[in-house]
DNA sequence: TGTTAGCACTCCTTATGGTCGAGTGCTAAA
DNA sequence: TTTAGCACTCGACCATAAGGAGTGCTAACA
């Protein structure tokens, strides 16, 4: 294990490197307060820390930079709780001055404040409501064979869909179908609706609804709640201000990731509670193995439904970003919950 | 005006530069077929072309590159109709193999094929349906005070909205309101609905609908068809493969533009019919004054409703991109029109 | 008069070598 | 165990030189 002094030195190096982005030399460390030993002693300790894998040396006569293992140790053991600065609080205050009145707007708004505060690329994985339950299903004829179906969940979310009705089916039959579905499926998980129909209701529907064979496609459509995982991003260009991203090829691989929605979803799907930090190789995706991804879940009515996260260089102000993300994710949950209630 | 030989030389230089991205020397031009004069003669002609502003010289002993004026002349007078290559046709064929069943999917799909074919950044400005007309308005109560309104246009588009109903208003009153609105507004331009209400219907509504003062907010909401101009982009990273975009700062200014949706909308709004080419300074936006933007309108049922375009370096294969865009915009119109009919 | 070969000249690109300085590792003394 | 001292390493920076692509000009030629 590391001695107290080694911890202090490691902390000092990372703390300096996070700001300067330059290898940190022994003299610089010795001048930091809390470290009251000479540069030579630091050099010995730094050699030890390097041997243990916490530090790296870009070349023989350069200072040291933290390794990914170093960052991991820093995050796990050396982090101090983040203190909001006056500027941050001001920005936050301005942020709250805006009223948002629907979910998408709230997401975009949250994204931009997060990007502003962290100076990183930020992501919000849109709410996935497949865990909510069916409240009611409606079908409304419009004209000709055009109709609209409306599916309402217990969370107050409304899915709407245009439908093309099959020919030669009287309206009363359709009403009967919808009534039956409502009766049987009310309260069921919306992600399982089609399964339930296939496994439990087909017989019943065939018995009670005329020409059900012509209506099974329509039934599937009615119950299909297309829930593509949508990722909102912001701050793409902020990352370009970081010296480690001034390389076009590196940037390209990250932008490729952003454009391929799936990749992002994979990157952000996030199981644990609270704030999760993934440093470098801890990420599965190759393109971000020299980046860090910090993420947190947000909830609607107590259920985790989405993720909010940032991507930045491994040289990231972890304390700050973790603190901000923790606060904003909780706050976002509150705001969304009220939005879903009120709307 | 330019002599035939000068045109041929200008054409040869641009044609070469589009591929090589390197200044073109007199020897290179003299070797091109169709130009049967010596390098020395070419040099004289190039000096003339430079004096006239069609060519530029990066430095004294370098070859020539086309100026923006040169590109403009090339596009206006020297372009040959684009011949689809076998590879392109293959890609197009694969593209058509996929079935799309709603508009957003069609847009994304079109975007990616366009990016693939042109190797540029591509944009599609989502359909703006404010020129369509109201067909019918519905309101459906869900539970508590939650309801859904449905607004159908003559183009078959459906707007849906969640509503929070005011307290103490009986359902029959709401029905009356909606009936009246339907009766009076059917066939009106949806972009003008609220105006018409304000200017012509307020009195009537007040006379026939009880407690209309409590319902005027709701009325506005009912008729509000939030139609944010949404821009879909693709191929952001393809542009990074072009040597002129290997500069991080340049890239940043373009990405900033993409992130600020409004900028893009401004860039793409497009009045003329057919394919429009804007080279360098012909663009209003500073960030793209060393790029070219090529765009075309697409239609739904004969009305232009949106724009599809590409952004790339001024050194762009204009013939190819114009040809592709012309074809795809027309094709996209056809596909969307059938989608809106069938759906 | 228009075209072409020849040639000096320009200026970018790349390679080379040298200096400077930050920072190290080692040694010896406190 | 800590510290001062010192030789050493290596990248960053700069100046200079060589190489080459391409020009502009001149003079000769059809």
Describe the structure.
Two copies of one chain form a homodimer. By secondary structure, the first copy, chain A, is an alpha+beta fold. Chain A has three domains: 4-78, Arc Repressor Mutant, subunit A (Orthogonal Bundle); 86-128 and 230-342, Beta-Lactamase (2-Layer Sandwich), CATH 3.30.450.40; 134-223, 2-Layer Sandwich (Enolase-like, domain 1), CATH 3.30.390. Helices cover 48% and strands 19% of the residues of chain A. The first copy, chain A, has twelve helices and ten strands. Chain A has helices spanning 4-20, 26-31, 39-51, 68-78, 86-97, 103-118, 171-185, 193-208, 212-223, 248-259, 261-268, 318-342; strands spanning 55-56, 65-66, 121-125, 134-143, 146-153, 158-164, 231-234, 275-279, 291-300, 303-313. Chain A has a five-stranded antiparallel β-sheet with strand order 7-3-10-9-8, with helices on both faces. In chain A, strands 4-5-6 form a three-stranded antiparallel β-sheet, covered by helices on one side. Chain A has a two-stranded antiparallel sheet with strand order 1-2. In chain A, strand 9 (291-300) and strand 10 form a beta hairpin. Chain A is elongated. Chain A binds chain B through residues 135-136, 138, 140, 142-143, 146, 148, 150, 152, 156, 158, 160, 162, 164, 234, 236-237, 240, 245-248, 251-252, 255-256, 258-259, 342-343, and chain B through 135-136, 138, 140, 142-143, 146, 148, 150, 152, 156, 158, 160, 162, 164, 234-237, 240-241, 245-248, 251-252, 255-256, 258-259, 342-343. The structure holds a DNA duplex (30 and 30 nucleotides). Chains A, B: Negative regulator of class I heat shock genes (grpE-dnaK-dnaJ and groELS operons). Prevents heat-shock induction of these operons. Chains A, B: Belongs to the HrcA family. Chains A, B: Residues 104-322 form the Heat-inducible transcription repressor HrcA C-terminal domain. Chains A, B: InterPro entries: GAF-like_dom_sf, HrcA, HrcA_C, WH-like_DNA-bd_sf, WH_DNA-bd_sf, WHTH_transcript_rep_HrcA_IDD. Chains A, B: Keywords: Repressor, Stress response, Transcription, Transcription regulation.
